[in-house]
Amino acid sequence: xxxxxxxxxxxAPETLIVYTADRPFRILQLTDMxxxxxxxxxxxxxxxxxxxxxxxxxxxxxxxxCFQYVYExxxxxxxxxxxxxxxxxxxxxDDNGAMTKKLCxxxxxxxxxxxxxFGNHDNESRKGVRWQMEQFAxxxxxxxxxxxxxxxxxxxxxxxxxxSEKDTMTLYLLDTNGCRLVGDAWAPEEGITEDNVDYDLxxxxxxxxxxxxxxxxxxxxxxxxxxxxxxxxxxxFHIPLKKYDEAFIQKYNYEFKKDFLADQEGDFGIVCEHNxxxxxxxxxxxxxxxxxxxxxxxxxxEHKNDACIHYDGVLLAYGTKTGTAxxxxxxxxxxxxxxxxxxxxxxxxxxTCRKRFEIAMS
Length: 362
Known about the structure:
The longest helix has 18 residues, at 210-227. The chain is globular and about 60 Å long. It has 362 residues and is of the alpha/beta class. Helix 5 (210-227) links the parallel strand 7 (169-173) and strand 8 (233-236). The chain has seven helices and 15 strands.
């Protein structure tokens, strides 16, 4: 459990979490909550489309259900830190900021420190990314930092056992950018509008940019110098890397649009959503991160996938989708637990919530 949190400053840009050695440090990854305020639907066509395609059960309170799941997970798993890997709100349905405020309020009620990154849908809200970051900054338990490179939210958190003078693990949280311009024929109001107050601040092309890669490398090298040895790390972000496809193909003879169960060498989970639009096609980010000690990569974005695959000496993992907004697998709603020991080993497990219809709504 946590003994002390030393907040980041300009002189010491990473928050340091000091934890006791009585049990592994627990990180709960939540992803793609996509909480929605239907009152913010931008036009009647989109309102009907969302209700018809996503809310087939006729239940309009998906945000309430989502936080029921979050509370259940937090109570059961007792995480020391909660990481949100993007699409925390469905920005198209948060033009008034109500869901972002609710997100902050509900996360604060849990009482654990929490660290969000932006997903592509978070960028859509007409309130703008600067306003969203202000809400994170106001939340007492939120560890979010904007960073000074491409995107909004590139920061690191250092973990250290109270019985040690060196770090156990570094956690890197990155913005994978990307945001569709409104006007897609299938979903005509999904995306960012040109009159968005922060339109020019959004990198519309998804990816991890060269200055983000340089920041990550330089941070890892500086921490290595301070600790006089390489410190293992984990990376958290929204959109999966191209390297995932290589692992799928090499280990499971993956063919596009062919589902598979990960069941080799400790792998687990399912790939049943197929997306050709991944990031880091040339491997620049992946190769750099691996070279400075990154042992695990944790993404979201693809709601039905929850595979965790050991490949190339690292873990390539999907977090379990949290909540039932938009599309999902009935048997895979919940979160992902990462447990880190003082000797820098870590284990990963998915934890599903009770079926949504069993939750009594107040």
